[in-house]
Amino acid sequence: MKTTRNILLSALLAALGACTWVKLDEPGKAVHVAYDGRVDGCRALGEIGVSVKDRVGPYERNSLKVKDELETLARNEAASMQADTIAAKGEPHDGEQRFGAYACGRRAAAAPSRQQPPASKDGAETYPVKD
């Protein structure tokens, strides 16, 4: 009986360790991540420190999930600072990471102009597949 309970508890903790608890909000979606760290020509707006749980009890969470959640939190925070780009200052450590927040002028470039497609003689309309 105790063994079955321990197995179920272990399975539950492992499943929770793979969950993503952090969601990217609408303003955060507009924030670009400079994975290569190149922010030439950008204006530094500050530094962002974020943290998430990297362990659930004795179990270590998936490092890719942790890294993804840290990036998501940083993007959400950068949007509140009027930044449009973030760059990691280093690798995550114990569920914590620091990012630089920058204004690079990407907001204007991210909003494509909406032009109506030319009207077709046969009445067909075309729509972009992806904005």
Automatic annotation (TrEMBL):
It comes from Tahibacter soli. Residues 122-131 have a biased composition (Basic and acidic residues). Residues 106-120 have a biased composition (Low complexity). It holds the Pfam family DUF4156. This is DUF4156 domain-containing protein. Residues 106-131 are annotated as: Disordered. The lineage of its organism: Bacteria, Pseudomonadati, Pseudomonadota, Gammaproteobacteria, Lysobacterales.
